[in-house]
Amino acid sequence: MATSTKKRRQSHLNAGSQTSNSAASMFSGGQTDQLGVDGRFVEGSILRITMKNFLTYDYSVLYPGPNLNMIVGANGTGKSSIVCAICLGLAGKTAILGRGDKVIGLYVKRGCSKGFIEIELFKTGGNLVINREIHVENNQSLWMLNGRHCNQKSVEEEVKALHIQVNNLCQFLPQEKVGEFAKMSKIELLEATEKSVGPPEMYEYHCELKNFRNKERELENVVKEKASFLEKAKQRNERNKHDVNRYYEKKRHLDVIELLEKKKPWVEYETTRKEFEGAKKERDNAKKQLSALKQAQAPMLGKIQLIDNQLKPTEAQIKAKTIAIKEASLKCKQKQEQLDRKHKEIEDIKQTQRLKQMEEEDHQKRISNTRRTIDDLKAELAKVGDQPDVTPRINAVNVELRNIREERAKIEGEKADLRREKDNLHAESTSEMLVRKLSDMNNMMNAKEQKLQRRHRDTHTALHWLRQNRQLFGGNVHEPMMLVINVRDHRFAKFVENHISFHDLRAFVFQRKDDMEKFMIEVRDKMNLKVNSISAPEESCSRRQPSRNIESLRRFGFFTYLREMFDAPDEVMSYLCHQYKVHDVPVGNDQTKAMIKTVIEEPYLRVLYTTEERYTLKRSHYSNKISTSNSAVHPSQYLTITVDAEEKRLLEQQMKACEVKLREIDERIKTLQAEAATLDRRDNELLAEKKHLSEVKGKKRQLEQKISTKQDSLGQMEHSVIDLQKIEEETKEKIAVVNSHKVSIVTVFMAQMKLRSKLTMEKVYLALETVGLMAEKAKLENDCRDGATELKTTEQKCSRLEQRKVQLTEQCKGLLKRAMAICKMKPDDIIPLNITSLCTFYDEIDAMLNEERSRAECFTGLSENTVIGPYNQEIKHLEKELEDKSNALNAYRQNISEAKERWLNPLKQLVEQINDKFSDFFRSMQCAGEVDLHSENEEEYDKYGIRIRVKFHSSTQLHELTAYHQSGGERSVSTMLYLMALQELNRCPFRVVDEINQGMDPVNERRVFDIVVRTACKETTSQYFFITPKLLQNLQYADEMTVLCVHNGSQMLPPNQWDEKAFIRRCIQRKARA
Fold first, then answer.
1. What residues does the RecF/RecN/SMC N-terminal domain cover (predicted)?
2. How far apart are CA 317 and CA 325, in angstroms?
3. Cβ atoms 631, 99 nearer than 8 A
4. Three-class secondary structure of residue 671 per DSSP
5. Residue 668 burial by CB count (10 A; 0-12/13-18/19+): exposed, middle or buried?
6. C-alpha torsion angle, residues 893, 897, 898, 903 (rounded to 10)
7. Which of 706, 868, 875, 891 has the fewest beta carbons closer than 10 A?
8. CA separation for the pair 181, 188 (Å, rounded)
9. What is the mean pLDDT of residues 951-970?
10. pLDDT digits (tens, 9 = 90+) for 886-904
11. Which residue blocks in 522-581 are alpha helix, DSSP H?
């Protein structure tokens, strides 16, 4: 990159130097002095490119030739800047350049507020000049066409009209997109070829055919649907002939049913009316019979009423006597209960006397037993007085018991301490914070694995295989870098991820190469997985020191090196230091970005980072000048999840240490429990012995106390003797008092018994009188019972017949009204003959109705809409629609056939021409290649594609060109020769290919160059730009080609000192001397 301190150099239209940062020296055999006059320029060719404050250029004007233009210059001089100017000046997108930045302002020279591009295109009737002014501040562009302001869409339309397609890799192939050409699918390659070399209408015909095919499928489906509907309608119409006859037969049955339904209410009315007449006559006869029966029963009923009047006073007296008898009986019962209570009281007095006698007998027995007990205790006391003293032994046992209790207290204290320590350790090892930390760390690792699985499933499958078969390897094997790299601060993840390619982030790292080969055989060859693997350097580079101490760079805003931002296993870090120089890549802040012009002048800096950008510095071997390229630092996708590996290891060690300590504490507690059990057994033995000795020592004293207690008790019992004679006298007195009360109660009881007997006799006399009257009444009732029954039955019959007459009257009125309503008759109308001529019995009508309904129900699914409907019209309508759709489909197929011929025949000829050129080019290189039109189904126009097959070795077969099968050099050769095959056929005004020869070996590069020169320098071809940083020696050149040498550096001559003729003269002299 040229610095801003260089002087601006003016461009001269006819001179050899056109740039301040680059001088483009044109060596052309027959080029005229004025551009646009040369008749070899095709419509849309580039006549002039002017760049101002654009990338590496302060100001530069470039004049390309009409045929092959070789742009040659060292790396970093600004060759690709010309490619960027062509793309952006012709309204191309930044994505076409493969740099990924949507910020158009990044293409303006650093330190400038705006940049300028002007491109002049050859056009019959007046050249087209396109201006684009790029502003950094708002990231916007201003456009002009031939000096008039316009919008970007107008520029795109003008460019499209000249058949310029900067987004077509067959026409415009930037350096970053060379690898993508081989990745294009056959379908994409066909479309790009159609747009590039085919007639303007070829791609339109192709799109039209794809749309026609979709419409054809729709019409085919419609025709099939209409044919199916028509067939079903015909089948229904065939069945309808029989259904019509059945429908009319059903209608006749329904008419008879309707007539019977009208007749039915009239028959029902007539039947009810006749029943009403009979009920009325029967009611009148019953009334006459009831009147005669009432006259015959009148004398007997008078006598019975007289007897009822005599019975009422007698029954009242019997009731009064019954009440008096009940009262007397109640009083007798009460006195009897009082006598029973007095008997019970006497029994209680006698029972109390017997209890006192029994108590005295028991008292005498206790006195006798106490005297015997005192004698026995005195004898035992005499025996105990002869035993020795046990006090010394009791004292010794007490001392030993105290010692045992002290030992037990110590053990219990130690156990309590151990339990507290165990609880603390258990709480520490199972603490929520510790468990959550470990769980969070494991979840983060799982999240990393899930991201890897979504992005690259093969690598994830290989990871599981490695975990299951790690024992197969002799050295260290590390999982993919993105899983083992741990960024210390998630804010720094974007720097690490932007610096390391994704292919290496998903790569497995091996300490030994033989382990890597064994792994690749298993997962790549046997399991057919696409994985990456890396062998770490034999000598570790992980501790390699940076070229400069970070302290010396802090004045520029650098605060650390990339290696210090993350942790990784030693082998992984060694590889990253060796391959990516992470130990020597400084990271700065906004201060670094502000001082970037000063920073890039610092030695030993190759790659550096600011807050949002990455800068790559290259020093030219020719001029020792530094060129820079910068790109935005994209947000991190995989390394933002950070897990502190050291913290995780310490936490796991802490949990393991707690578990070991807990086991030790459990063992010590078990030991202490065993010791405590031994002490408990000894303590129980000593307690038993002490108890026995204490019993022996206290036995004499206990015996003396018992004798004294028993003697006191004996004295008390002798003084508390019961007087039985006195108690007997008191009992007799109490019984005499109770007996006197009994006498008075018995006197009252006998008086009430006499009164109850008298009342009972009086009641009996009244009952006898009542029985006589009742007998006379019964005799009279028997005499008139038969007549009364018949009278009652006749009354009920009269009442029932009256109700029936009223009911039938209402029923007749309702039936008459209903019958006239059903027949839709007025009160004065006469009943129709067709109703009166039918049967006149209700049962017969019901039978006929049931029969006709059964016959009508046999004809199911028949109605006027479904049977007599317009089937013939529907079939005719469907037949017409089917004919119209079929004709439309045939016409459409005819159109498709014609469109297919218009598209496919020219396309086949075009592909055949490309194949001839492509095959010739490969044969000239002692290789083989062919291009063909590939399609699995001729009718599927969206599946057509161009297939490129190549062979670089005689021992192999033709293989399809893909991004995986061929090497990088082979893909470059294939791409270049395909573009050359398009060159003579190309209808585009120019083609740009940037550094495609970088991966070629010298032999292929020389052959390809000869083909390019021969093809691109023909008069029939369009303009061609070939950008390369180097050329082989002794290449064959043509007079029609233009060589543009891009110089950039402090040693470049100013334009006023550049003498093209002198330069050519010196070259000729040098050649002659050689």
1. 46-1030
2. 12
3. yes
4. helix
5. middle
6. 130
7. 891
8. 10
9. 73
10. 777 777 777 777 777 777 7
11. 570-580
Share of the chain above pLDDT 90, in %: 7
CB-neighbour burial class of residue 386 (10 A; exposed 0-12, middle 13-18, buried 19+): exposed
Q: What order do you get walking across the sheet with 1023-1028 strand by strand?
A: 25-26, 1042-1045, 68-72, 1023-1028, 990-994, 172-173
Question: CA dist 271 to 568, 801, 849, 1023, Å?
Answer: 113, 18, 18, 118
Contacts of 507 (CB under 8 A, 6+ apart): 480, 481, 531, 532, 533, 534
Distance CA 980, CA 1015 (A): 7
Mean pLDDT over the full length of the chain: 77
What does the pLDDT read at residue 10?
32
Which residues share a beta bridge with 561? 586
C-beta neighbour count of 61 within 10 angstroms:
22
How far does the chain reach from its first CA to its final CA, in angstroms? Answer: 36
pLDDT at residue 36 above 60? no
- Position 868 pLDDT exceeds 60: no
Give the C-alpha separation, 32 to 35, whole Å. Answer: 7
Query: Which residues on neighbouring strands pair with residue 934, listed in sequence order?
Result: 945
Are residues 1049 and 622 in contact, defined by beta-carbon separation less than 8 angstroms?
Answer: yes
Residue 171 CA to residue 193 CA, distance in Å, equals: 9
Tokens of 271: 């039947």
Using the predicted structure, report yes or no on whether residue 196 has a pLDDT greater than 80.
no
pLDDT at 17: 34
Neighbour-count burial of 314, counting CB atoms closer than 10 A to its CB (0-12 exposed, 13-18 middle, 19+ buried):
middle
Amino acid at residue number 145:
L
The whole-angstrom separation of Cα 585 and Cα 720 is 121
Is residue 162 within 8 A of residue 121, CB to CB? The reply is: yes
To 10 degrees, the CA torsion angle through 682, 686, 688, 691?
-160
Minimal CA–CA distance to 109: which of 224, 258, 6?
A: 6
Percent above pLDDT 70 for the chain: 80
Cα separation, 1026 vs 523, whole angstroms = 42
Residue in the structure block whose two tokens are 């002007």:
118
As to burial, measured by CB atoms within 10 angstroms (0-12 exposed, 13-18 middle, 19+ buried), residue 695 is exposed
SS (H, E, C) 325-346: HHHHHHHHHHHHHHHHHHHHHH
Q: Name the token pair of 116.
A: 């300028």
Which of 180-184, 536-540, 818-822 has the least mean pLDDT? Answer: 180-184
- pLDDT at residue 385 in the model: 59
In whole angstroms, give the CA distance from residue 925 to residue 980: 14
Three-state SS for 953?
coil
Say how far apart CA 519 and CA 477 lie, in whole Å: 10
Average pLDDT over every residue of 995-1013: 73
Give the pLDDT band of residue 443 (cuts 50, 70, 90).
low
Tell me the C-alpha distance between 1044 and 928, whole Å.
33
Amino acid at 429: S
Query: Partners of 59 in the beta sheet?
Result: 52
CA angle 336, 337, 341 (to 5 degrees): 120
